[in-house]
């Protein structure tokens, strides 16, 4: 039973390798479910040389230094970290792309899908400024209408008082 990190059973098969420990740590960091005071990872260990690697026992929550196959593990960790970073960066770029698409589609002017991001941002800024000026114009109109209402109310009050 996992009492340190709430991972599903499919991740249990990875518990022996240090690369898998790194992936488990990244998953735990992503889901915010790790206890950093109890766990140490390859990039956090205070090793003086590259001959040691960190191994995480997921079920027990222990980490121990292991000097066997450290060169392969370090290369594997580097490749895994790079692949994870590349995947996260790709996801970030996709989110930005989707946000620009939503922004482009929300604008009243019809921009084609080939419009640059700078064009989309400039059009969005111009549209926001035009909306702000329309809001100010409507607020002035509301104030004028409220003044006219007060004048008419005063006039009605004066008329009813004078006729009594």
Automatic annotation (TrEMBL):
InterPro entries: bHLH_dom (IPR011598), HLH_DNA-bd_sf (IPR036638). GO terms for biological process: positive regulation of transcription by RNA polymerase II. Residues 128-162 form a coiled coil. GO terms for cellular component: RNA polymerase II transcription regulator complex. Residues 80-131 form the BHLH domain. PROSITE patterns: BHLH. Residues 34-53 are annotated as: Disordered. SMART domains: HLH. Keywords: Activator, Coiled coil, DNA-binding, Nucleus, Transcription, Transcription regulation. One of its GO terms (molecular function) is DNA binding. Belongs to the MAX family. This is Protein max. The lineage of its organism: Eukaryota, Metazoa, Ecdysozoa, Nematoda, Enoplea.
